[in-house]
Amino acid sequence: MMDYIVGLRGYAATLQQAKKKHPDALLDLREYPLEGVQVVDERTYRIKIYGKYPQFSYWLAMTFFAPMPVEAEHFYAQAGMSERNLVLDWWPVGSGPYYLSENNPNQRMVLTRNPNFVGETYPMEGEPKDAEAGLLSDAGRPLPLIDRVVFSLEKETIPYWNKFLQGYYDAAGISSDSFDQAVQVSVGGETNVTDEMKAQGIQLSTSVATSTSYIGFNWLDPVVGGSSERATKLRRAISIAVDFEEFISIFANGRGISAQSPIPPGIFGYREGEAGINRYVYDWVSGAPRRKSINDARRLLSEAGYPNGLDEKTKQPLVIYLDTTATGVGSKSRLDWLRKQLDKINVQLVARSTDYNRFQDKIRKGDTQMFYFGWNADYPDPENFLFLLHGAQGKVAKGGENASNYNNPEYDRLFDRMRNIENGPERQKIIDEMLEILRRDSPWIWGQHPKDYVLHHTWLHNSKPNKMANNSLKYLRIDAAQRNELRSRWNEPKLWPLGLCAAVLVLLGWWLWRVLRQREEAR
Amino acid sequence: MIAYLIRRILYAIPILIGVNVLTFSLFFVVNTTDDMARMQLGMKRVTPEAIEKWKQQHGYDRPLLFNEHEAGLKKISDTIFFQKSIRMFMFDFGSSNDGRDIAREIQARMLPSLAIALPTFIVGLLIYITFALLMTLFRATALDVMGVSLCVLLMSVSGLFYIIGGQFVVSKLWHWVPISGYASGVDGIKFILLPVLIGVMGSVGSSSRWYRTIFLEEAGKDYVRTARAKGLSELRVLFGHVLKNAMIPILTGVVVVIPLLFMGSLLTESFFGIPGLGSYTIDAINAQDFGVVRAMVFLGSVLYIAGLVLTDISYTMVDPRVRL
């Protein structure tokens, strides 16, 4: 934020100096005015930023911009508070629809309706199909719609899933273990809950997450990196060979869509249909993208100087190294799958599994060739994805978020133009140009955008998955009477096994006693 | 005995220093202080300045073991090892990376762990000894063979199977108790019944066989034969003589684990949602929280040493011939 808010850079130095002068005293920020921020009235403040930065409004929605009463800071700064674990980040003070009335992340956290929260109502309009799905039936009602929300910690998926089926949780995600029990996929590819779930009134909501998982190529690597035609064709060949549709089908139960670029659906700049496909990896056939054939990949590999997977100069097989943090037994199948993909074009893959720290260290130093990575959107703007390939964000050179160290001056120039203009045809045109450059250069195997699957019981209303918004709780509504009735009906204790166990134990005891008596009498 | 206790406490000091040095070395071989800062600050947009600031705030901006920029004793004392270790011997565990007081956290988590571990331990001990005594009572009969076979069968089944199977049958099919959860006081009884039952079941095979071996060895001794020859009933021989004289080997295995009951069980607590100490160390290792790892290893060592001392003391109580 120092690069955006006027005076913030100098402000940090001012506060550090003040802290040095009075190391034990609480800094009252009211005594240290910040040049770019003015208080307008009791409920309004104004921030002045350098230049134009439309994404700033998204930053304002993040937690670190939440307004905080100065009294709270003074309260927690009292002597002895932190020693008793009474600190602001454990007992936060805010102005939202709920307050944290119980905080034990190791067991449960309880949110209770904030009696002072007023003035916000359920939205009157939504996305297409929202009204049809019943998501607007509470339109205009004051928020929040639930008085008390309990979050319980379940570390294991099996008890979590069983408790959801018993009705003790209102909503649940689906683990791979439970997927077949919960979801069925029709011949047409449509997903729905199984008959067993339907009988319980369980409903399924799906949405593509605003995130992307990819395999990055290190642009600084002499084999796979750089803008030469040889390296570009090699990357394209590998991109074609790694069949992410198969990956999604095998490892994610179909919960995802193949990525055509870094931008996921739902973010401005994403294009549906033929206009949105990556023509270097896919063809548009019968109204759907189809991955190019493995022969195309082999041809590209040959043009790159590796006919049949052999370096034409040294006649040695091409070996590609993948760095990953995947070290567990469960990861082996994924790495084997990836090996098999490259094997299709006779390229050998060596997976270098390492711990998280060493992996990050390798990424920072550029000591990788290929690596698994991912990104979740911070805010719904294409800039938040496209900056991952901006030269100024190069991981090795600048310590930024461009882990591939991709560098293309033309892309960087377009990025700098695109970031500061409003969404519209002009911005879309620039994004299209940027995506074309990226697809041509292929610094990533674009991977997939995962799909969120959320199951919820019939008594939970207004549930709509959204990986980015953290404030959707206030819109949810519960039919508590229906929940209690169904929960009791589903969980009536069966007592006959208890009687049977007791009878068996008594009989066994009696029999043993008899045997013992007979033995004693025989002595 | 007091001299013995003082001697053992003095012996414990170098052991605890050694454990502390080993924990410190192993932790910082795998993690650097920069790694710790990055883990806490998140994966996105972590600047070198933020890392330095975090290290400064948490006392990780010093050298690890030797400070060459300082003079005299400060070369040793102004290091991460010294600053983080010395207070621990006063049982001041300091704060975790997220700013929580570790001693308070341990205190809060210890009770739920104990709520499961103590009943499991007591009920288990009673059942294992009873079962072993029954097998001894009917030794060399078909009942004994059946009992031993059952023990081998129960030993062969994975602990995870008992947990998942127990939750499925007892909670999902029969709805006797909740699948998982925890509450303090009387409300909590329904939550601890199943983990206790499964905890007891999980060890009934191995423990009963072990106790059976002890009892059989004792039952073959001359004084037992004499007791039988004098006409004592088999039950009186077993409970009046064999059980009493088998106490030393039983105590060897039992008393040493009593202090460690506080440390909880990772698997049981994870599956039953018990907010105990079982996963505290593992979570801390994953979060690269040196403060917690160090405190938990230290506490584990102290409790283990305490268990060994208690075992020695208990010998004197059951066998008057033993002197400390």
Concise account of the structure shown:
The complex is a heterodimer of chains A (523) and B (324). With 523 residues, chain A is α+β, with helices and mostly antiparallel strands. Chain A is 33% helix and 18% strand.
Can you describe what's shown?
- The complex is a heterodimer of chains A (523) and B (324).
- With 523 residues, chain A is an alpha+beta fold.
- Among the domains of chain A are: 1-93, no CATH class; 211-452, Roll (Dipeptide-binding Protein, domain 3), CATH 3.10.105.10.
- Chain A is built from 17 helices and 19 strands.
- In chain A, the strands form six sheets. In chain A, strands 6, 9, 10, 11, 14, 15, 16 and 17 form an eight-stranded mixed β-sheet that branches. A three-stranded antiparallel β-sheet of chain A has the order 3-4-5, with no helix packed on it. Chain A has a two-stranded antiparallel sheet with strand order 1-2.
- The radius of gyration of chain A is 29 Å and the shape is globular.
- The relative contact order of chain A is 0.12.
- The N and C termini of chain B lie close together (6 Å).
- The radius of gyration of chain B is 25 Å and the shape is globular.
- The longest helix of chain B has 36 residues, at 102-137.
- In chain B, helix 1 (2-30) packs antiparallel against helix 15 (290-318), helix 2 packs across helix 3 (48-58) and helix 7 (142-156) packs across helix 9 (189-219).
- The interface between A and B is large, with 40 and 46 residues.
List keywords for this structure.
heterodimer, A: 523 residues, alpha+beta, Dipeptide-binding Protein, domain 3, eight-stranded mixed β-sheet, three-stranded antiparallel β-sheet, 18% strand, globular, B: 324 residues, mainly alpha, 70% helix
